[in-house]
User: What shape does this take?
Amino acid sequence: MRPRLLKTFLAVARCRNITRAAEEIHLAQSSVSDQIQTLETELGTALFTRSKQGLQLTPAGATLKSYAQDILMLAEEARAAVDVAAGHAAGAVTIGALET
Assistant: This one.
């Protein structure tokens, strides 16, 4: 399971619409559809059902949503920890200037 697929999955789950999710994450609708299909094939189950209200998570999709959020959060924490261990600077830099 690639993080990119999980990010796309979470966007679709949040938007409940593939077109809106594609706009939100700046991908073509076909790419989002392909990524969801890839994830469903990889997991061997449907993650969404279609309804008049938009896409709805299946029970499997709801389970994946919780894990996907945790996985992506842990990946970010790991990146930050590795940066600290490697001595890379982290954080924001603020630059101020006075008008003369």
Q: What stands out?
A: The longest strand covers residues 48-51. The beta strands are 48-51, 54-57. The chain has one domain: 3-84. Helices lie at 3-15, 18-24, 29-43, 59-85.
